[in-house]
Each structure stands twice: as C-alpha cells, then as structure tokens.
Amino acid sequence: MELKVGLLGGGSWGTTVASLVSRNAPIKLWARDPETVIDINDNHCNSKYLPDIKLPPALTATSEIGEAVSGADVLVMAIPSSNFRNVLEQAKPHLRPWVPVISLTKGLELATSKRMTEVIEEVLPGHPVGVLTGPNLAREIMAGQAAASVISMEDEIIVKQLQQLFHSGLFRVYTNTDLLGCELGGVLKNIIAIAVGMGDGLGAGDNTRSALITRGLAEITRLGVAMGGKPETFSGLTGMGDMIATCTSPLSRNRHVGVELGKGRHIDEIIDEMLMVAEGVKSAPTVMALAKKYGVEMPIAEDVFEVTKGNRSAVRAFRGLVNQSAGAESDAG
Ligand SMILES: NC(=O)C1=CN([C@@H]2O[C@H](COP(=O)(O)OP(=O)(O)OC[C@H]3O[C@@H](n4cnc5c(N)ncnc54)[C@H](OP(=O)(O)O)[C@@H]3O)[C@@H](O)[C@H]2O)C=CC1
Ligand SMILES: O=C(CO)COP(=O)(O)O
C-alpha cells in the first residue's frame, strides 16, 4: 500500500526531506508563509531557505494545514523546537488516529525540558513516534551529495516500514530502536558545535578542534546514557556522525554562531542577522538543567551556556576549556 505523507515546515530541512520523500511517495508540504508555497508550487524552488536549488516537480505545498494533515498516513514535523508544540496542536484536529509522527527537529522544549517525541506523545497520545536524524546538512543533500541517516522508533516493525519512505539512492537510511539515544545525540551535538565554532573563530588549530569534538562526545554520551540512551548509539551516525558534520562544516548554523562568538560578537547581534534556526543556543539552558538533574558534569556545554548568556567572554571560556587540569581520559572534565 502506498503511504501518503504530510510534512509540516517549509524551512531548509523540511523542504529537503520532502524532496527526498517525493521520490518514494505522494507528499504534501505545509508552510505558513504563502510566498514559500507559491514558490514551491509554481517555480519548484524555495528561494527563501534553499536559494539556487531546483526542487522535484512532484513536491507540492499548501498553506492550509488541514490539506497536508487530513489525508496523511505519516506525519513529519520539521518545525523548530520553539514552535513545535503549537504547530502540533494546530495539526491535531485534522490527524487520523494511529498515524505515526516523525520529528526532524534537533531541539528541546524550553519550558518543559522535553524531547520533541515526548511532546508528540503528550499532544497526540497513542500515535507511534519517531525521529529521522543523523549527519544531514540540508544544502549538501539537495546538491546531490551522498549521506546516511537513521530513522528511530521503539517499534521494530513500524520503523522498517517507514525506512522505505525516506531511503533513496544517495540517502541511506538505517534503523535504530534506541529512540532516546538517537534523539538526544541530534540535540546535544549542537552545543558542542557552538564550542568548536568558538575555537575556530578564535583561530584555534586542528588539534584543538579534535580534542573538543572527542571530549564533547564523551560529555554528551555521559548525559545521554544517564538519561537512558545506549552508549553505542552515541558512537553511531546520530552521535559521533552528527558531531563530525556539525562541528566541522561551514554549512552548520550552530557552528556559525560559535565562530561569530569567537570573533567577539554578542549573541543577540548574531541571532538577529540569521534567517535560520540555531537550536543549540535555545537548548543550552535546558541541557544545563538536565546535567544538574542527572548529576553529570558537562564543562564544554556549561561554557557555551555562559557565553551565550553573555556571562563569560568566548576568549575566557576557551582558555578555561583548553587549560583545564587533565585527569584520566575516562574522567569528566
Ligand atoms: N537544516 C539542516 O541542515 C537540518 C536541520 N535540522 C533540524 O530541523 C529543524 C528545522 O530546521 P530547518 O528546516 O533547518 O529550519 P529553518 O530555519 O531553515 O526553517 C524553519 C521553518 O520553520 C517554520 N516555522 C517556524 N515557526 C513556525 C510556526 N509557528 N508555524 C509554522 N512554521 C513555522 C519557518 O517558517 P517561516 O519561513 O514562515 O518563518 C521555516 O519554514 C531544526 O530543529 C533543525 O535543528 C535537522 C537536520 C538538518
Ligand atoms: O543537524 C544538522 C546537521 O546534521 C544541521 O546543523 P545546523 O542546525 O547547525 O545547521
């Protein structure tokens, strides 16, 4: 049976995933911006978020949320974490029972510290939930570069059915049933990417970058495992894989924020001039609260939090990070 897909969110990643799915199944993308809808339907472009990229003609968009949701056999959410719950509430009256809901979002809800799949379970009880996550920079994928990703759900049967929707020639999609671990990897790596960006903005070298990525991975693994994720998940595509892509790519918005902070600019000024979302800035306070709750030391994330709050300069934070006294490699810090 052919599954119909509704995807909510007309930004860079929503449009990219909708383009991939359109090769395998009928899909309707909902965007709140009517100009984006016209651009996708008439010009096969999303000039606002993916300039100079041609979209597949099979991809169509709507500005009526009910049109994307009511006929859907699968709902995909590509809305930043700050507006995720609100959009899910708008979709709820149109959604048929038991339709699986897959999140593409790599953030946490500020007010509740919840993961997006927890928000889905709260708003839409009974619907199977999952994430599609991994080292997936939208522009590279739209340029036709090969990439791998992971669809993660706790239900082994449904996850295999949905894998086929997203998988295509150059976009390899694996399955994983450690939903919490996969989802958290995508959230937490954003903060480490800001730290690495800060170092790059300050002129640090490749050795420093490598040390930060490795210690950052240890840090996010400690928190993820304390929260119930599997250690091996953090060494896979959704953990180490996404860390490498986000911490090293000039396309990463989180790394970009770090680079600008490293140059000495203020966070408000950096965010004001960005059209796109950098989830790590918003997640940092929530991650600090979770680290405290689970008794996990996260010195890199803490420095990023202090710099983004304006309490510490990037230079001071970075000196602290590289000068920290070193214990055993297996220790925190
Ligand atoms: N870009 C990437 O490479 C990747 C991104 N992600 C994750 O995907 C999520 C979405 O990111 P991305 O697409 O890149 O973000 P963008 O910043 O490119 O776009 C955000 C989109 O969300 C829409 N939006 C925001 N608030 C609302 C709302 N209240 N109602 C309706 N639409 C809304 C915006 O609409 P409008 O234009 O009208 O403001 C825009 O279409 C993030 O959590 C990100 O971390 C994950 C993997 C890769
Ligand atoms: O999650 C991403 C790559 O996997 C995108 O990272 P940014 O949000 O930092 O651009």
Structure description:
The mean pLDDT is 95. The chain has an eight-stranded mixed sheet with strand order 3-2-1-4-5-6-7-8, with helices on both faces. The chain is of the alpha/beta class and 333 residues long. The chain has helices at 12-21, 34-43, 65-69, 81-91, 116-123, 138-142, 156-166, 179-201, 206-226, 237-248, 253-262, 267-272, 279-294, 299-308, 314-323; strands at residues 5-8, 27-30, 60-62, 74-77, 101-103, 129-133, 147-153, 171-176. Helix 8 packs across helix 14. It has two domains: 5-177, 3-Layer(aba) Sandwich (Rossmann fold); 181-323, N-(1-d-carboxylethyl)-l-norvaline Dehydrogenase, domain 2, CATH 1.10.1040. The protein contains 15 helices and eight strands. 1,3-dihydroxyacetonephosphate binds next to helix 8, helix 10 and helix 11. This is Glycerol-3-phosphate dehydrogenase [NAD(P)+]. Its main location: cytoplasm. Catalyzes the reduction of the glycolytic intermediate dihydroxyacetone phosphate (DHAP) to sn-glycerol 3-phosphate (G3P), the key precursor for phospholipid synthesis. Residues 4-156 form the Glycerol-3-phosphate dehydrogenase NAD-dependent N-terminal domain.
